[in-house]
Amino acid sequence: MRFHLVDAFTDRPFAGNPAGVVVLDEPADARWMQDVAAEMKHSETAFVVTTRDPKPLRWFTPAAEVDLCGHATIATTHVLGGRQRYATRSGLLACEAREDGWIELDFPADPPCETDDDLRPVLPGTTVTFTGRGRENLFAVLESADAVRQAQPDLEALRALGKGRLVITAANQATDFVSRFFGPGVGVDEDPVTGSAHCTLAPYWAGRTGRTRLTGEQVSARGGIVETELDGDRVLLRGQAVTIVSGELHV
């Protein structure tokens, strides 16, 4: 079985979000995939079966399987190349590795519904101007891009809320918005660049700006750029990727 390590949502090595990609001839046992993901220790490892159409694709953190992952899908499409169709827990996903080096994902939009969640224990001393929830994540808009960069969430308090996953965001000058993602509930304290979070970020900021094409910057330590385009109930996500390691699994 071929294994690849790919930095996604970046055009240079050692930036963006690293993802494992395991290329399979046949579907694998879920327990084995979880063990491989735990061994790799990346925020996500993707497992794709290449002998079927659409190709079954699953994503695992070191602790749990997830329904949708953008950066590991970018990584998978970077490895396979061309146009791909994936059968996933979030439905059929169409993706394309373009000749200009950008990879485009067609994902379901996940606009946040406003809620009255009290995030003061999670974000102490931080002003939150909007609180909402998507399908999987809590969603909070902060007063400034600097507030997003400087935030230090209480991860134990976050783990006690819902599924323990939070997107924080604010408007920005250099790009349209900035964000960070924290997922202690799925074994990822902070994810470097989170494609699936932009399924919520894109419709929120499209509604605020009146523009469907936007550029987001995830301001984690590694950082990354995600281009977004809202298209009805779908979001087109665009990013780049770099292969760091290719090899074989022997288990």
Give structural notes.
This protein is an alpha+beta fold and 251 residues long. It has five helices and 18 strands. The protein has helices at residues 30-40, 70-80, 145-150, 155-159, 198-209, and strands at 2-8, 17-24, 44-49, 55-60, 65-66, 83-88, 91-97, 103-108, 113-114, 128-133, 138-142, 166-171, 177-183, 188-191, 213-218, 224-231, 234-239, 241-248. The chain has an 18-stranded mixed β-sheet that branches. Strand 2 (17-24), helix 1 (30-40) and strand 3 form a beta-alpha-beta unit. It is globular and about 50 Å long. The model has no long low-confidence stretch (mean pLDDT 96).
Helix and strand arrangement:
Elements: E1 2-8, E2 17-24, H1 30-40, E3 44-49, E4 55-60, E5 65-66, H2 70-80, E6 83-88, E7 91-97, E8 103-108, E9 113-114, E10 128-133, E11 138-142, H3 145-150, H4 155-159, E12 166-171, E13 177-183, E14 188-191, H5 198-209, E15 213-218, E16 224-231, E17 234-239, E18 241-248
Parallel strand pairs: 2-3, 4-6, 11-12, 13-15
Antiparallel strand pairs: 1-2, 1-18, 3-4, 4-5, 6-7, 7-8, 8-17, 9-10, 10-11, 12-13, 13-14, 15-16, 16-17
